[in-house]
Task: structure prediction
Amino acid sequence: MGELVTWAYPAIFLVAGMLSWLLVPVAMKVAIQRDFVDRPGGYKSQESPVPYLGGVAIVVSFAAVVLAAAILRPPISGLDELVVILGTAVLLSLMGLIDDLRGLGPFLRLAVVAAATGLLIFTDISVRLVDSGGPVDIAITILWVAGITNAFNLLDNMDGLSAGIGTIASISLFVIAVFNGQFLVAALSAALAGCAIGFLRHNFHPARVYMGDAGSLFIGFVLAVLALKLRFDAPRQITAFVPIVVLGLPILDTTLVTITRLRHGRNPLSGGRDHLSHRLVFIGLSVPHAVKSLYGVAIALGWVGLIVSRLDVGTAYLVLGLVGAVLVTAGFLLGRVPVYSNSIQRKIVLQSVEKTDADYAHEHQTAGMASTDGS
Result:
């Protein structure tokens, strides 16, 4: 895509956001009419059924904006890539919708994501890190796309979390892309940020709609691909680390959940209330404060990603080392939060997620007194 005029990016963002904001209530109405709702039970925390299909509104909004932009200003190059990216993302979203409504096994879902990544590689969208598109780079590409796609699916565990982090990551990629003249990546990032934030208006605590796998898989996949497309004037090792930093929060969450579940003999592919967000709630934060705290971390990582993309190699490695040490330390400390210890503690986590700040503070104090009494 050729260079866009300055006003095009905010226009894309605003149109995508407005369209998503308007379509989400329509999706909610359809979901309620057809009983496409997420019901309470198991590790789910809501007290009443919440409609799905919010993710469908995100996908439709994104596709409409991207197609309209491509018609109004056809890309000078990269049209084939754009078609593959959009088509593959929509197909993954359709798989997610089927999973929401009927349920699919995790291995089948991973296989479909791997197949989708194969389509990307076939159209030459892949990592160029080790052997210029050889077997090692192909393996890294599959691991990256499948990992980030699944990470956003796992991150969709608390009101407003996945959509908010997706918005922040999209804006971060947009800024980096604009600084480096990647206009197609910038335009797609602006569109995705708008769609996610339009949905977030209805999804922030207490959520009135969920995006479901249809939305989380779509957002994760598009972000993974945009990160692959991100290029700037720096050594390949630095260009590879910048997307990792920008998407560091979902990576940390997935890594922490996988390691702690394996340590406790739990299935890493199963659901549970042991994510970063749940651990922050467990140690005393309300749901809105936990989510906003993670927003802050994501914003900081986005800024670090931009800074690293503008630094010399030596300084960039020092900054990356510091960020890595901070994230590992935070993961280690939060990993020690005893979310698996007993049913009483799990019950506190489950009960806290539906409370207002005032209700949460009162309940937390009461629960602490009860624990002291040995109940």
